[in-house]
Specification:
heterodimer; A: alpha+beta; Ubiquitin-like (UB roll); DNA polymerase, domain 1; 2 domains; 8 helices; globular; B: alpha+beta; Uridine Diphospho-n-acetylenolpyruvylglucosamine Reductase, domain 2; Enolase-like, domain 1; five-stranded antiparallel β-sheet; three-stranded parallel β-sheet; Oxidoreductase (chain A); 2 iron, 2 sulfur cluster binding (chain A)
Chain lengths: ~210, ~300
């Protein structure tokens, strides 16, 4: 069957979709968006988390046909999604400077993040693609994950980013308990979660500074 | 496989009548797991995601009509005062991602003995509104579960809503698992005090082939509370009464040994949860009584 839906703001059409296929499979194998990861295929791990009409869901448990006519945001579109959201709140103008500001603040804390962040700046200068996320500046939560060292093997990261970003949208000043609950559906087997907690706290703090 | 995409409830009923083997899918959190793991290859998937009224709820005089597809997240956010037991149970379901998709209709359709909503529905008192092209009927929750993953639905029927009695007293829910999120219950227990009728209702999950009430325990407790004048004097429940109640709840179980726990552990844990939830709800009832008396 054919499925039409919007992914990261762009209308998409997937053909020859098997009726029992998951949204995750369509995203990864038919639309060339491998950011959402396929691990447990039973909703246990959260690594396939995407926004479906704004709501975080496990894309492995959404039948592709159920996405017909709906809007999906994947980790590839997270940066653009976050940028548009901050534009909506009027914080748009300051945003492009916001990230370098916060990174220099990070560097002055003694975090040796100079080189990769410069690269991020270079990437932003290249042509951008909101669909695949290539060339776009990172979203605040993505930057915070890098700065806090919350990424190890990286497999759980896309799902955590989507879940964490949605929580910060709803709850700009989360307690540790709020963060733990919001991320309770995302498993990480490397970090022990402490760095992930640090990253979300950092993203929340930076978000607070901008506003 | 065919993917049926009814745009309305009437279309959904017609599709189910035409294809009784069609598997309804709403949140997909049960059905998609089975498909992903090749445990199930239904001939037809019947997507209920476009039937808007399944996502609505309405609080009436005595009960809440909860659409079959209302996600657990919405129950937690919006129905905590009307349905405290179900709201607590909803919060124990899996993870935020799953709670954003799954709902009580799916729990009832799957009818797993481990479904988190069941003990809360049994304790509160509920009726399941089911419909086919032949007509609509309401199945009392006590008659709904007929076996392991079996329910009282006919092949052409779909679950439309659940009518759950609004709380007239404190309700509690307790679940045993290895962590707070993403666990299938080792066992679970729901308890509701009904001061209006001076009765107590219970629900046990994951400790028998179906979700069950501990009827003997309820009868014992109803009689003990009545004889001791507890509903009026608001005294602390005698430890011996609480113990007897807990023992009778444990005796109502008919559990098995499996990977999540042994039968004897489940019996023990249900007894402990019964005693605790009774204490919690009764303390809350006594507190409310005191407040009301103080105000009067």
């Amino acid at each position: 069957m054919r499925v039409n839906f919007t992914v990261n703001g762009r209308p998409q059409e997937a053909d020859d979709v098997w009726e029992g296929e998951s949204l995750l499979y369509v995203l990864r194998e038919r639309l060339g968006l491998p950011g959402s990861k396929n691990a447990c295929e039973q909703g246990e791990c959260g690594s396939c988390t995407v926004r479906l009409d704004g709501v975080p869901v496990c894309s492995c448990l959404v039948a592709a046909g159920q996405a017909e006519g709906r809007e999906v945001v994947t980790v590839e579109g997270l940066a653009e999604f976050a940028r548009q959201r901050s534009c909506g709140t009027g914080a748009c103008g300051g945003h492009s400077e916001g990230t370098p500001d916060s990174t220099s603040a990070g560097a002055s804390d003694g975090t040796p993040e100079g080189a990769p962040l410069d690269e991020a700046g270079e990437r932003a200068a290249r042509p951008q693609d909101s669909h695949t996320g290539e060339g776009t500046e990172l979203s605040p939560v993505q930057q915070a994950f890098i700065d806090a060292g919350a990424v190890q093997c990286g497999f759980c990261t896309p799902g955590l980013l989507v879940a964490a970003d949605e929580m910060l949208e709803r709850n700009p000043n989360p307690t540790d308990a709020d963060i733990r609950e919001a991320l309770s559906g995302n498993l990480c087997r490397c970090t022990g979660y402490e760095k992930i907690m640090d990253a979300v706290r950092l993203a929340a703090a930076r978000q607070g500074e901008v506003v | 496989m065919d993917f049926l995409r009814p745009a309305s409830w009437q279309e959904a009923l017609a599709a189910k009548a035409e294809h009784p083997t069609a598997v309804p899918i709403a949140g997909g959190t049960d059905v998609m797991v089975e498909i992903n793991f090749d445990h199930r290859r239904p001939e037809y998937l019947l997507d209920l995601g476009r039937v808007g009224d399944l996502y609505e709820w309405e609080a009436g005089e005595d009960s809440v009509r909860l659409g079959a597809s209302v996600p657990y997240t919405k129950i937690m956010e919006n129905l905590r005062s009307e349905l405290p037991g179900l709201a607590l149970a909803s919060h124990t379901v899996a993870s935020p991602q799953i709670r954003n998709r799954g709902g009580v209709g799916g729990n009832l359709g799957t009818a797993s003995p481990a479904g988190d909503a069941h003990p809360a529905l049994l304790a509160a008192g509920a009726e399941v509104e089911v419909e086919s092209v032949r007509g609509s009927r309401r199945i009392p929750i006590d008659d709904f579960y007929t076996g392991v993953k079996r329910n009282a639905l006919a092949a052409d029927e779909l679950i439309r809503a659940v009518h759950i009695k609004k709380a007239d007293g404190p309700q509690q829910y307790s679940k045993v698992g290895t962590r707070n999120a993403m666990v299938i219950a080792v066992c679970a227990f729901g308890l509701a005090l009904h001061p209006e009728t001076r009765t107590v209702r219970t629900g046990i999950g994951s400790a028998a082939p179906t979700p069950v009430r501990a009827r003997t325990a309820e009868e014992f407790l109803n009689a003990a509370l009545d004889e001791g004048g507890f509903w009026d004097n608001g005294k602390i429940i005698t430890p011996s009464v609480a113990k007897q109640f807990a023992d009778l709840c444990a005796a109502a179980c008919n559990p098995i040994d499996d990977v999540r726990g042994t039968a004897s552990y489940r019996r023990h844990a249900v007894g402990v949860m019964a005693r605790r939830t009774l204490t919690w709800t009764w303390e809350s009832y006594r507190g409310t009584r005191r407040t009301t008396e103080g105000a009067a």
